[in-house]
Amino acid sequence: MAVAAELISLQSLEGRLLFAVPKKGRLLSASLNLLEGADIQFRRENRLDIALVKNLPIALVFLPAADIPTFVGEGRVDLGITGFDQVQEHDAGVRALARARRNSGEELSPEESAKPQGCETVMELGFGACRLQVQVPAKGGYAEGKDLIGKNIGTSFVHLAEEYFARLELEKDGLEGVSNGDGGYHLGARKLRTKIIELSGSVEAACALGVADGIVDLVESGETMKAAGLKAIDTVVDSSAILIKSKAPSNPAMVDLIAARIGGVITAQRYVLCQYNIPRTRLADASKITPGKRAPTITSLDEEGWVAVSVMVEKKRIAPAMDELMLVGATDILVLDIHNTRGS
């Protein structure tokens, strides 16, 4: 294994686009399936966090999902898959750092000023849905977020929690809607009355152990929260997995290629191809049922007055669509899987 690690470390990454992928957790499995569907071929050696793609000039870098927005935002890697919640937390941290530097009178160096900062969302990926929520003991007396002002809050999303409670404190002080002008709330020279306690794991246990009065944590099914005796009283961020890119990628054409491939996989996962025959006189009715992503493909049959229709339909709608098509006179209805697509 040491030999393999040495080989990877000696392998030049020059000319390869760096693509960050979650190394573990709830986003890893779905991300790997997405890469497979996009025909990104690689072999990840055990315990190594860099894998060279065999069929494209790309290197995959396996990183904690929370770190990916930082690496992409600083231009260290070109592309990344992470959660929208992690991007929002990173951006809130950037805002907090910028305020601290402004307040101290520190100026950016010419190199820092010239370098594009931050990341751009390329597309939503359709998996990893969750919510960053304010949670409190189910049998306690807290009913809404403002009830926790001045209390202890445990979270791994420190910056988002600080902005959330800064907004609540501003509203309580009669300054509703006052923001810092770059997407977040802050208290200016005043100190946040609510104490934000940074926790890296097992956040849901903080209330039961007396560490915090409430928490700000991710919720998927809600079962873990219920088991810990907690209930949600507000949502800070609705999140799912997204593809992000650097504002100055090393190879924009390759970024566009990978985005097109991933977009094709996502479309193929959402849609099926529906084909049917129908009298031309009923075509308008059928088109209302299956309008397609852009428009149906219509072909004349070798039978007077009949046409063949080929159209993409969302998987979740295909069963009722078939029922409705039969009612307007469609016959020979077929549904085919789509393995990949290109184009919007």
UniProtKB/TrEMBL annotation:
It is an enzyme of class 2 (transferase). PROSITE patterns: ATP_P_PHORIBOSYLTR. One of its GO terms (molecular function) is magnesium ion binding. It is found in: Cytoplasm. Belongs to the ATP phosphoribosyltransferase family. NCBIfam families: hisG (TIGR00070), HisG_C-term (TIGR03455). This is ATP phosphoribosyltransferase. It comes from Podospora appendiculata.
